[in-house]
Amino acid sequence: MKTEILNIIKHPTLDHPEKFNQLFDFYKKNPSKDRNFESNFNRIGFTEHQFSKLIYEVKKVYKISDLEVVQHKFNDNSIRKPWGFCETPEEKCNMNYCDENGCQNRTRHLVEDSELNENINKETQNNEVPIRQEFPFLNSEDCPEEFKILVNDKITAYHKMVAGRGALDDPNTPEEQRAEIAQSVADADMLNSLIYEELKYYQETGKILGNHEIFATHNLKKAIENMTAEQKAQRIETLKGQIRVAKSALTKAEKKKDTEKVTDLKAKIEALELERNLVIKSLEKANN
User: Fold this and answer.
1) Which helix or strand (DSSP H or E) is residue 111 part of?
2) Mapping DSSP to helix (H, G, I), strand (E, B) and coil, where does residue 37 land?
């Protein structure tokens, strides 16, 4: 069962929503699951945050380490196709394709390795294609600025994955460093996939998917534009009160020298003020 789960996590063509659904099925079957988490996953459904959380929970209940995830090589014999025949004793034939299709006369199906490798390495190959060639919209003058930042992040994440996997394959890498390297590779892999989905969606639809946090302001503006004038006015007052409460809490935290809380509150105040300014601008624009 571990192999099935690892194949889902490392599948080169499944998108995150489909991976979420398949992993959730495995999570529901495990007696060690947290019923509160199960209810939460079922109620909210797929989001990138929920997807990351589900992967963590699935790995926990099935006792799968980050190192196992990184080192697992995706292998799905169902994508293998018959290419020819060769004489092989049936008792030595252990390929799923042959088993499912009932090998006869002590023969088995051959597999075109190039086709299998093409599927397995699809994501890696995508990184080898010049990204501006794969996504021409990046060369357009009206390309959203966020995508230019994401491209740099994607390239960085890809190189981190390559370097990390190289370190994990190196027998000289100290054992105590492997867990940290594996986590770094897993994080970079997740970021790389997330950015690729954003680029692919915009390429196909001309719209922003918005799952990456860089689009938080974009999503906020979109939500504000869907508000009525009355709702905007009410939201401004609500935000005003929330900012006041947060600033009061910040003053107390600074007196107590609680640096962690001070940092969190400053970030919260900044986010609240950003939203308030956006709502005010939107309301003023609607009134002009």
Assistant:
1) strand 107-111
2) helix
Least confident interval from 52-66, 98-112, 156-170: 98-112
Do 211 and 237 touch, CB atoms closer than 8 A?
Answer: no
Amino acid 201 reads Y
Reduced to 3 states, what is the DSSP secondary structure of residue 204? helix
The β-bridge partners of 108 are 86
Answer whether residue 106 shows pLDDT above 70: no
Q: Two tokens at 47?
A: 């989001």
Alpha carbon separation from 231 to 88, 228, 236, 242, 279 (Å, rounded):
73, 5, 9, 16, 10
Residue 108 CA to residue 87 CA, distance in Å, equals 7
Q: Taking the CA atoms of 165, 167, 170 and 175 in sequence, report the sign of the dihedral they define.
A: negative
Q: How many other CB atoms are there within 10 angstroms of residue 245's CB atom?
A: 12
Question: Which among 199, 198, 185, 74 has a CA at the least distance from the CA of 130?
Answer: 199
The single-letter DSSP state of residue 102 is T
Residue that has been written with the tokens 């624009």 in this structure: 285
Query: Counting beta carbons within 10 angstroms of the beta carbon of residue 285, is it exposed (0 to 12), middle (13 to 18) or buried (19 or more)?
Result: exposed
Q: Which residues contact 183 (CB under 8 A, 6 or more apart)?
A: 66
pLDDT of 92 > 50? The answer is: no
Measured at the CA of 165, the angle between CA 162 and CA 169, to 5 degrees, comes to 135
At residue 111, what are phi and psi to the nearest 5 degrees? -120, 135
pLDDT surpasses 90 at 269: yes
Measure the N-to-C terminal CA separation of the chain; round to a whole number of Å. Answer: 61
